[in-house]
Each structure stands twice: as structure tokens, then as C-alpha cells.
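A reminder from the course coordinator: this example appears on the midterm review sheet, so study it carefully.

Given structure:
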């Protein structure tokens, strides 16, 4: 047995809390149904694609007065997509509910993500197996993967594997794309009378899988606290050395929720929000001018240091960059099999081929970029055919352009400071951290609740636990139809049904909190130092959730 750290030993002892309805017993629940639902957009197209699972009601679980018998069930579980803190507790909650319902029930974990159910690679969980992973970070209990479940062959193979194991329900733990796969699989199983239910669980540290029923995706709480600790450490260092500008890019594929939350927890001098950049149609040049203005103002009062927080997906929200990248995504599919491109002897030859294929305006933008960024834009695409923005070193692009602009200002006598930049990218540091108390409880509840949805015979639903700014016993458990969250988007040149990403709302209370304070934070050093995630201690320290969730639920910030 591997040697455990003292923290591991203590965290394994932690007993996650449940909503009172679930704590009363999995077989004692009653289910209340709401009215019929519809997709967020493109209702006619989504309904046509999901004839058997569209329009289902939102459901809520309440404590019942009598106990129900639960038949023997075998359930399979899949971890899909990027890691997020708390995934192990979703599986632990699912396992505990399943065994509580009927000790004869079995839980199988498919190995390596969705490919596990296609290829028939699995493990059967028992108490000892599960107990070793409770309250721990990572997805290493069964591993994860990004294989998409979308073809007839994949669905057929999945069905064969489920029949072999007598599995009657599958739980897919993932983000918006993974739960789109869950919706497609649920529809196919119903259409083909497979008798197999599919339930999703909302995972993503990006925070962009949410609505009124899904208040937060799991992992967001822990990841943002991890990043905030690191930013706080850097801020303390900057305030001590007083000679470096730190440019910190933070994970968040499309939405800026992570950067915004980390900024509210730490109060850096500059925070860029992608959605604001897009709405204001800010050019790359205007962003550089905005940042240089703050750098110059601070230098004029003797502060040649500062902190800038940059969302990972920023580059795709700058209008001229967004247009160019969209054009690039479309042509890269054809270039993958183009012999001239594939056999090009130098990277500059590839640049030339790309520029010749791009629309003239987009080619001009592409040509203006440093070679480093041009090369990164040509890197392997993600599973949806899009540029992998995590591989684009936006922070270095900004540093290079700011340095050039400051040199111009210095030559004109408009800048007297010294600019010593440092670049950072915080991504993987937050994906597998020990889950916070909130994520440990929330994830356990999501898993436990997922089996409640199975127990009531539902399929095509996402596990929902809400009222999350209250104590766990007051949380409300239930489920939301996956089709309710869907719209049509272009993927690989074709319109596909996908769960709509929830972007930062610029008229919402979270962004407004930043907007009201950013001028003060820019010049005055209002740095906050959150410290490490707390597990034990006063509730006001170790049990408080994110600024984002508090503000969205009209709560006063506990940290301010």
C-alpha cells in the first residue's frame, strides 16, 4: 500500500454532508415534477434530434414518509474530459447510495473515459477500493478521456458492453461536451429500447456549465481557491520585491469565470474579462493601451510592479482575432490532408500556406503576430476541430506588445519606469487539488443524487443540487433534463447539438463587483492573500464558498 501523507489520512476520515432529503435515506425519497421544459435555443431542431427525451420536467426530491423497495441494479460510471477536484466523491456518493438502496447492487467504473464503455475496459468497485479515494483530488480512480460518444458504432458497442455486465444505468461525469454525449447516448438507448438509463453530473473547473438549476459546476470552488492562493503568493512577492510585473494566465477555455473569481478573491491591479473585450469590441491594440496606461500611472508614483490576470480564452474574444481563428478553424480541417502543408519543410512555409488560404483581412491579422503565436495557432486541434487556446501563450504575446509600446512611450518622454515582466500559466495546478469542504460535500451529494434519479427511472437528466449558499442540509436535490440546456453550434464545419456554455454576464452582480473596484485596485495595492484551502477551523474560513456563488445568490461577500 502506498504511504499516505498526514493530510491524506485526515481527509479520508472526512464524512461529506448531504441535503436533508438525501440524508433521510435513498429509498425514502419522493419526487416532485415541474412543468415541461424546452431547450435554451433552437427548440425545433433540438426537439427533432431528441424526440424521445425532449421536454421532460425538472424534478425535485423530498423526504418521504414511507420506504420503497429498490430492485437490484448494476450501474456503470464514466469520468469524461479534463480533471476537476471532487470527481472521486461523485463516485463515492453514487456507490454509497447504490449500496444503501440494495446491497446487491453493483457499480462498475469504465477505464480511461468514454472509450472504456466502448472497448469494455472496466473495474468493479468494492468498499476497500472506494474508501481509498474518498475526499481526494484527481480522476485516477479509473482515469478519464476525451473520446466522444456520437456515432452509431460507438453506441452499439456501448450497448453490448452494458448487456454483458447487465448494466441498466450509466452515469457520465463531465462538462458541457461530455454531457452532450450523455444526452445523445440517452436518446439512442431510448430509441433502441435498450432499457439503459443515462444520467450526467456537472463537472468543469471553468464554471461555464450552469443555469438556475445547476448553480455551479463541481471543481470550480477548489480550483479557484487554489489559483487564488498562488496569485496571493505572487502578489505578496511583488509587493515585497517591488520590481516585477506578473502576467498570470488562468485556465478557462471559453468563459472567464475562473479569472473573475480569482480576481475577486485577490484584487489584482489588472483583470481582463474576455466577454467584456468582445462586447466592447476591443482590439488587441486597445487592450495593450489599456494595460500600458495602468503600468505608466503606477510607474509615475514609483510602483514599477503589479499583477495582471488574463483569462485563457481571451485571444478568441478579441474581434479581429476571433474572426481570424474562426476562419483558421475552418481551413485547418482541409489542410490536415493537404500534401503541400503536411510535407512543408519549414514552419514559415506553413505560415505562407495558411496566409494564402485565409481571407485577406484575417491573413493580415495572422501575419502581424509574432512567429511564436503563429506557430501555436497551427498546433493540433481539440476534439471539436478548434484551436487549443491553452497552447497559445497569450500572456507572452501581451508582454511582447506591451514592451514595444512602453519603449515607444519612453522615447517620447511619456514613460519613466522600468518594466520587468514575468509570465505564468495556472492550469493543471488546480485541476486535481484535494477538494475543498464545499466540493467534497457537493460532489458526494451529486453522486448520491444521481442514483436517486436512476432509482426513479429517469434518463437524459443532469444531477442537480442547488440552494448552495445555505448549509448542506438545506440544499435542494433533483434533476434537470439535459436537452433543456442545449442549442445548435458549428463544430467541424457542421451544426451540432451541444450544451450552451454559460459565459460571464456583464450585467450580473459578479462582474459588477469587479467593475466597481477595478480603478481603485489598479493604482492602490488592495491585494488579498487567501492562503491555502482550509479544511479544519472556523466555519467562516473553511466552509465559505466562492465570491461568484455568493454574489449570484445576493449574499454579502464573506471575504470582504
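Designed residues:
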Amino acid at each position: 500500500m502506498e504511504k499516505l501523507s498526514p493530510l491524506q489520512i485526515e481527509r479520508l476520515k472526512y464524512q461529506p454532508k448531504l441535503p436533508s432529503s438525501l440524508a433521510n435515506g435513498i429509498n425514502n425519497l419522493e419526487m416532485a415534477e415541474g412543468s415541461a421544459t424546452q431547450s435554451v435555443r433552437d427548440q425545433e431542431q433540438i426537439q427533432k434530434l431528441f424526440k424521445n427525451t425532449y421536454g421532460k420536467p425538472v424534478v425535485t426530491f423530498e423526504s418521504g414518509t414511507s420506504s420503497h423497495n429498490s430492485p437490484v441494479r448494476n450501474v456503470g460510471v464514466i469520468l469524461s474530459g479534463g480533471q476537476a477536484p471532487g470527481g472521486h466523491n461523485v463516485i463515492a456518493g453514487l456507490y454509497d447510495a447504490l449500496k444503501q438502496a440494495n446491497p446487491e447492487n453493483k457499480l462498475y467504473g469504465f477505464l480511461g473515459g468514454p472509450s472504456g464503455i466502448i472497448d469494455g475496459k472496466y473495474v468493479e468497485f468494492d468498499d476497500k477500493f472506494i474508501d481509498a479515494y474518498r475526499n481526494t483530488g484527481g480522476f485516477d480512480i479509473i482515469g478519464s478521456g476525451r473520446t466522444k460518444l456520437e456515432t452509431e458504432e460507438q453506441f452499439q458497442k456501448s450497448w453490448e458492453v452494458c448487456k454483458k455486465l447487465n448494466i441498466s444505468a450509466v452515469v457520465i461525469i463531465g462538462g458541457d461536451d461530455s454531457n452532450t454525449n450523455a444526452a445523445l447516448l440517452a436518446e439512442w438507448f431510448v430509441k433502441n429500447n435498450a432499457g439503459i438509463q443515462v444520467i450526467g453530473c456537472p463537472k468543469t473547473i471553468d464554471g461555464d456549465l450552469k443555469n438556475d438549476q445547476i448553480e455551479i459546476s463541481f471543481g470550480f470552488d477548489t480550483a479557484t481557491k487554489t489559483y487564488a492562493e498562488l496569485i496571493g503568493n505572487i502578489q505578496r512577492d511583488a509587493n515585497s520585491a517591488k520590481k516585477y510585473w506578473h502576467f498570470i494566465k488562468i485556465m478557462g477555455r471559453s468563459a472567464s469565470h475562473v479569472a473573475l473569481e480569482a480576481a475577486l478573491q485577490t484584487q489584482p491591479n489588472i483583470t481582463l474579462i474576455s466577454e467584456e473585450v468582445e462586447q466592447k469590441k476591443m482590439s488587441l491594440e486597445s487592450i495593450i493601451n489599456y494595460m500600458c496606461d495602468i503600468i505608466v500611472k503606477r510607474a509615475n508614483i514609483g510602483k514599477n510592479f503589479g499583477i495582471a490576470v488574463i483569462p485563457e480564452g481571451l485571444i478568441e474574444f478579441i474581434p479581429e482575432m476571433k474572426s481570424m481563428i474562426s476562419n483558421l478553424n475552418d481551413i485547418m480541417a482541409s489542410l490536415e490532408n493537404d500534401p503541400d502543408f503536411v510535407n512543408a519543410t519549414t514552419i514559415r512555409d506553413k505560415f505562407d500556406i495558411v496566409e494564402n488560404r485565409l481571407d485577406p483581412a484575417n491573413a493580415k491579422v495572422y501575419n502581424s503576430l509574432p512567429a511564436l503565436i503563429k506557430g501555436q495557432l497551427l498546433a493540433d486541434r481539440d476534439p471539436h476541430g478548434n484551436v487549443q487556446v491553452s497552447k497559445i501563450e497569450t500572456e507572452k504575446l501581451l508582454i511582447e506588445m506591451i514592451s514595444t509600446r512602453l519603449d515607444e512611450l519612453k522615447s517620447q518622454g511619456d514613460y519613466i519606469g522600468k518594466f520587468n515582466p514575468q509570465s505564468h500559466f495556472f492550469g493543471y495546478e488546480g485541476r486535481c487539488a484535494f477538494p475543498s469542504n464545499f466540493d467534497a460535500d457537493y460532489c458526494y451529494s451529486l453522486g448520491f443524487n444521481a442514483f436517486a434519479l436512476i432509482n426513479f427511472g429517469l434518463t437524459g437528466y443532469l444531477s442537480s443540487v442547488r440552494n448552495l449558499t445555505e448549509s448542506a442540509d438545506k440544499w435542494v436535490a433533483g434533476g434537470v433534463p439535459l436537452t433543456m440546456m442545449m442549442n445548435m453550434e458549428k463544430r467541424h464545419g457542421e451544426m451540432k447539438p451541444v450544451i450552451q456554455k454559460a459565459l460571464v454576464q456583464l450585467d450580473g452582480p459578479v462582474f459588477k463587483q469587479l467593475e466597481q473596484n477595478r480603478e481603485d485596485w489598479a493604482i492602490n495595492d488592495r491585494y488579498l492573500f487567501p492562503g491555502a484551502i482550509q479544511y479544519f477551523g472556523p466555519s467562516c474560513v473553511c466552509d465559505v464558498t466562492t465570491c461568484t456563488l455568493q454574489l449570484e445568490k445576493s449574499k454579502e461577500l464573506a471575504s470582504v
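The chain is about 45% helix and 15% strand. The chain has a mean pLDDT of 94.
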